[in-house]
């Protein structure tokens, strides 16, 4: 974790992978040494800023760096994506959350929807290292939003790509190739938009295939104290930051999760609109 007197965490590299999707390498040696697949950090870009959870996509313990991938959707993520190599981030806390369950399952299908691919990537890599056959299915609305394809091809046994508009790979949704593979799968990890994860869970449930999803609800402190990341799993309240972020997909109450994630959407839109107005005012 960061110390209170830390001067900040240096961004050593930064590049866009897709429109509004940016990869950062950040010098955080203690996090890099400790992190395991599935864990995340909480980042704050200034003293009064919002705390945002971001999955650790990769790490280099020798160089002391961690890799995060950020989709610029709201005010804070857009501010973060405006930073570049040489800039510093004041607060990076982690690694947080439980690591992914890694064992030899057999044939594993890892599904990433949009920026969810960045979250699925480290677990896919760890599953392969554990001796599994790994098939990656990655999707996006169009070709520009398909990320980490080459990185996955470096170790996955097969990579299948889908796009909503058919501009790359197969035209359709990630559940289309999943359904073709049902007879040969032992384990599924799905990470992406809630409707996608819910659809995957519905497909695998009747086949009794172990299926895991990584949840990203509203999160503030990352320690379970605030209660903001409460999710309902198997009829019980759990906290994604300490009990997850990965859960049994067949036990998650996706309807409640969808409602909770929408609670602050209007406030976020207003905050982003104010930020854009300020930027426009500075430009004149």
Description:
The chain is an alpha/beta fold and about 280 residues long. The chain has 2 domains: about 10-95, Elongation Factor Tu (Ef-tu), domain 3, CATH 2.40.30.10; about 105-260, Rossmann fold, CATH 3.40.50. The chain has helices spanning about 30-35, 75-80, 115-130, 150-155, 175-180, 195-205, 240-245, 255-260, 265-284; strands at about 10-20, 20-25, 40-45, 50-55, 60, 65-70, 90, 90-95, 105-115, 135-140, 160-165, 170, 185-190, 210-215, 230-235, 235-240, 245-250. The strands form 4 sheets. Strands 12-11-10-9-13-14-17 form a 7-stranded mixed β-sheet, sandwiched between helices. Strands 5-6-2-1-7 form a 5-stranded antiparallel β-sheet. Strand 5 (about 60) and strand 6 form a beta hairpin. The longest helix has 19 residues, at about 265-284. The protein is globular and about 55 Å long. Residues about 1-5 and about 270-275 have low confidence and may be disordered.
Instruction: State the CATH architecture of the largest domain.
Output: 3-Layer(aba) Sandwich
Helix content: 25-40%
Give me the count of strands.
17
Oligomerization state of this entry? single chain
Q: Could you give the distance between the termini?
A: 41 Å
Unreliable segments of 5+ consecutive residues: 1-6, 270-276
User: Average pLDDT, to the nearest integer?
Assistant: 85
What structural class do the secondary elements suggest?
alpha/beta
Radius of gyration over alpha carbons? 19 Å
CATH class of the largest domain: Alpha Beta
What is the count of distinct domains?
A: 2
Major sheet attributes: 7 strands, mixed
Order of helices and strands: EEHEEEEHEEEHEHEEHEHEEEHEHH
CATH topology of the largest domain: Rossmann fold
CATH superfamily of the largest domain: Nucleotide-binding domain of ferredoxin-NADP reductase (FNR) module
